Amino acid sequence: MCAIDVTLNGSPTEKLEWAFNMYDIDADNRISMKEMTQVIDSMYDLLGKEKKGEFAPKKRVQQIFDRIDTNKDKYVSRDEFLKGCQNDEQIRIMLAPTLTK
User: Fold this and answer.
1) What CATH code is carried by the domain that includes residue 39?
2) CA–CA separation, 83 vs 91, rounded Å?
3) What is the pTM of this model?
4) Above pLDDT 70, what percent of the chain?
5) Coiled-coil ranges per the record (predicted)?
6) SS (H, E, C) the chain
7) 15 is in which domain, residue-wise?
8) CA 20 to 30 Å from 35, out of 4, 62, 63, 74?
């Protein structure tokens, strides 16, 4: 119930924090490519989305990491995630679609 409240009524920062925590499966305060791929793959399954070509989860995750993994350590930190979503509308739509500016 708390998650639903945050996604509906939370501040933009709270929504992004919630989204980060969803992707950070092992709760180590960073998102690996594997974690993000698992979440995006599951989202595609739920939505019945195509998983081929440019929409393949691994390809999509690589595109996201290329844009928001600013230190290129192959992980997205909480700060990189928040800044990436705040500064890039396409990234925000892909990673935190419930957040509107």
Assistant:
1) 1.10.238.10
2) 10
3) 0.86
4) 89
5) none
6) CHHHHHHHHCCHHHHHHHHHHHHCCCCCCEEEHHHHHHHHHHHHHHHCCCCCHHHCHHHHHHHHHHHHCCCCCCEEEHHHHHHHHHHCHHHHHHHCCCCCC
7) 2-95
8) 4
Q: Which long-range contacts link 49-58 to residues 24+ away (Cβ below 8 Å)? A: 58/33
- Tokens read off for 55: 């929409």
| Locus of tokens 């500064």 | 87
Q: Is residue 101 situated within a structural domain?
A: no
Residue 82 lies in a domain: yes
Q: Rounded distance, CA 58 to CA 14, Å?
A: 27
Residue 11 lies in a domain: yes
**100 in a domain, yes or no?**
no
Q: Which are the contacts of 87, defined by CB distance < 8 A and separation ≥ 6?
A: none
pLDDT at 71 over 90: yes
Residue with tokens 């933009």: 12
Number of domains in the chain: 1
